[in-house]
Amino acid sequence: MKTRIDALTRQINGVLEAHLPTGDVAPERLHEAMRYAVFNGGKRIRPLFSYGAASALQLEEDQVDTVAAAVELIHAYSLIHDDLPAMDDDDLRRGKPSVHRQFDEALAILAGDALQALAFRVLVSGGSENAGAAVTALADACGSVGMAGGQAIDLAGVGETLSLDELTAMHRLKTGALIRCALSLPALMYGADDDCVGALSQYGDAVGLAFQIHDDVLDVEGSTEELGKPSGSDIGSNKPTFPACIGLDASRAMAARLVQEARDQLTLLPGDTDLLAYLAGFSVERRS
After folding, report:
1. Angle (CA) 249 89 224, round 5°
2. Which of the ends of the chain has fewer CB neighbours closer than 10 A, N or C?
3. What is the pLDDT confidence band of residue 238, given thresholds at 50, 70 and 90?
4. pTM over 0.85
5. Under CATH, which architecture does the 2-281 domain have?
6. How far is CA 165 from CA 168, 215, 222, 242, 251, in A?
7. What is d(CA 43, CA 51) in angstroms, rounded to the nearest whole number?
């Protein structure tokens, strides 16, 4: 599996390289900031979900290159904005200065804006006749009924005590929406049947939530060196988290149940689901 993931990581990096302007193209510093955000050591988990969905749908992996790239560009934009002083105020991202620290706050905002716009340009460049539906799905995933909405709820929840249902609903938007979209876009672009779309959506819902729960656990247990950002930052910011809500042991158990629920959905898909099965487990086994 490592060989396959390494190959797919090289593949998506090549696609991203092809679509991102180089740092010697005006406005140079903006393009430098965009590239810094994208090529800073990310594991490309969301593109891997798209490639895994393609295999599960019996598509060629390179058919979803533009989908995978668009999703990763949205993810990169979201991390730039999440790190800003007005948001999570993080100085480190993946062990390196966050974009607003490496450049400046205004340029970081513009780099995030430009990456979001580029994502939609890349998505439609694949030439699918279903590109309109894909654009709508990606817009929903990163907008007020998806990732941005979840972040707004998260910010409003600082210092508040959220119920488990409220916390779960928030993270289904903040983290889960883009993961679900990474999985559903290949199906939308290439006309998979409703059963396959439903299975991928259910898988994504479960894995996305498990991924976030494990993030919250790592914030308690992980080191700054492992995480690439200050450990305990959520606790320090008094943000609502799963360990704070239900405790560490219950959080781990909930994540494990969700991973099994995700894997159960894979039996409904016609193609190779090995990558998706692996990613489900990885979501709760990673150290960063």
Report:
1. 50
2. N
3. confident
4. yes
5. Orthogonal Bundle (1.10)
6. 5, 18, 26, 11, 13
7. 14
